[in-house]
# Entry
Amino acid sequence: MNESIEALKMKYLRGLSELYPDIASASTQIINLQSILNLPKGTEHFITDIHGEYEAFSHVLKNGSGAVKKKIKDVFGRTLSSAETNTLSTLIYYPKQKMDLIRKTEPDMNDWYRVTLYRLIEVCKRASSKYTRAHVRKMLPPDFAYVIEELITEKAEIQDKEAYYNAIIDTIIDIGRAEPFIIALSELIQKLVVEHLYILGDIYDRGPAADKIMDRLLNYHSVSITWGNHDMIWMGAAAGSPACIATVLRLSIRYSNLDTLEEGYGINLLPLATFATEVYGDDPCELFGKIRADGFSGAEDVLNRKMHKAIAVLQFKLEGQIIKRRRFGMEDRLLLDFIDYKKGTITLDGKTYPLKDTNFPTIDPNDPYRLTEEEEHVMDRLRSAFIHCEKLQEHVKLLLTRGSLYITSNYNLLYHGCVPMTEDGNFMRVNIYGREYAGKALYDELEKYVRLAFVGEKEEKLRGEDIMWYIWCGPKSPLFGKDRMTTFERYFIEDKETHKEHKNAYYRLLNDETAMNRILKEFGLDENAHILNGHVPVLQIDGESPIKCGGKVLLIDGGFSKAYQGKTGIAGYTLIYNSYGMQLVAMHPFTSTEEAIINETDIEQDQIMVMSAPRRLHVADTDRGRRIQERIGELRELLKAYRTGTIQESE
# Structure
C-alpha cells in the first residue's frame, strides 16, 4: 500500500514538473504564492431575495452595501466633507449620469476633471492594494489598461513623480478623454471593492425585471448563487416542466409582472389569452385580480383576470398529475378530488367549505386532472416557447454553472431556505424516489435530479422536472420549508384557517445552538462557522433581529421586494465580510435611480458588526489560502525531488 502511495505521489510530481520544469520556476511560484497569502482578505458581498427589483439590486451592487463609501473614507478621512464624500460616491455608482448633471452647473470642467481624477486614482490605488498586479491587470478596462496601471502603480524609479502623474492627467484632459476615463475608473473601483458576490436565492418573481438582473450577473466579474424556490420554478419552466411553466405564468399575472415574460424573454402569451377568452368569456373571474396596484387597467385587466384563472386551473391539474405520478407524500393536495362540483363545496380535513367560485368549465369531475384538448394545445405552445427561448436558457445555464443548493465557503454555510428538521432537532428524513435522505445527503440528491432535468435521458429528465416542482412547494423541501402551499385555498376558500402554512421545525430551532452546530457539522464545518440564510423576511418593525443563535446564524433576506417592506419596516439586509470581520447592513427602501443621482441618497440605514476579527484577516485565512498552502507544499516536494535528483530538471 505504501509503495502505491509513493508511486501516485511521484506521478503527480512528474505532472507538476511539466508546469514548473526547473528549480528556478518552482521557487518563483512558491514566492509568488507566499506573497498572495499575506494580502488582506478580499471583500465578500452577500445579497438575497432580490425578487426582480433590478434598480434596487443594481444600486446595492454599485455601492457594495457601503463598501465604496467606506473605501473613500479610508483614503480621505476627514479631508473630504460629507457632501463631497456623497458626491464622489454617487459619481462612482453612476459616473455618466452624474457628470451629465455636474456639467450643467460646474463653471470650470477642466479643473473639476483634474480634482476628480486625482481622487478616483487614490481610491483605485487603495481598492487595488488587496490584489496582485496580475489580478488587477485582468480587471482593467481594455481602452485604458496601460494608463490606469501607470497611475495606480508606484514608480520608485521616477524622481519627480508628481510631474509624471500630472503630465498623464493633463494629457487625458487635453485630448478630451477625461469623461470616458472617469467612467472607466469608477467601474473599476466597483469591481475592486468587492472580490466576490454571493446571491442566496430568489432572483425571480414579484418584481418587474429579473431578466435584467440575470443579464447583469452574466457580466459580473465573480459570482456564486444558491438557488431559491422562486429560481427553481423558473429553472423547471426552462427545463420544460408544464407544472412549473403554469406556476411561473400564474405568479407573473398575479403580480402584474408580464413584462418579464413578454418583453424580457419574448414568451408569446397569445395562445393563453385566446383560450382564456373563449373559455371564460362571460365569467368576470373576480377572484383573480392582480396583487400589485400598478399594471393592468380596463379591458386589459378583464383579459388578464381570465388568463389568471385559466392558468391557475391548469396549474392545479398539472400539479395533481405530478402528485399522482410520484406521490411525494402529497396526496392530501389532490384538492380537485375533494370538490363537490354540484354543491360548490370542498371538504378538507373533515370540514366542508363553500367555494367562492364554482365555475370550472374545463374540469371533468370524473377525471379532474385530465387536460382538455384545448388546454393540451396551449401548454404545448407555451412549453415550446420556454424551452426555445435562448435568453432564458442562457440565464438558466448561468444558474446551473454558478449555482447550487448550498455553498460552503470561508467558514460559512450558505443556503436559501432551511435544513428540514424534526421538533427534537434531528434531520428530517425525506423519501426521494424510494430512498430516504436527510441533511446534506438530501441536498445532494435533490441537486442531482435538478441537473438531470437538463442533461438526463427521458425518464431521468422527467424525474428531474418533477423534483424541481417538488422543491418549489413540497412539504419537506429545503427551499420551501413549510408543510403545504395553500394556493388553492387562498383563491377559493374564505376561511383563513385553511390558508395557514406551517413552517418546518428548523425555524423554531434557529436559536438552538445544539441544532445549529449539528447542521454545521453535517456540512463539514466546525462550531465557529456561520450559517447565512435567505428566504425569510426579518420583521424589524416587530423588533425581530436578523442575528440568531448568538451570531452563529444570520438571516439576510434582502427585502428588495416592495410586497414585503410594509410588514418588515425596512428593505431587508445584506452582508459584507471583509478583512476586518462581518457586518450586516440594513437598508432603506430604494426609491429610484434618478433620486439616488440627483439627491445623492444612499440606502444603507445601519451597520451591525456581527463578527470583529481579532486581527486583520489575510488570504491565508480563507479557503483559497488553504488551497494555496497545499500547492506550496506540493511545490516544496517538487523542489526536494529536483535537488535529490529523483526528478530531473528540464533544459
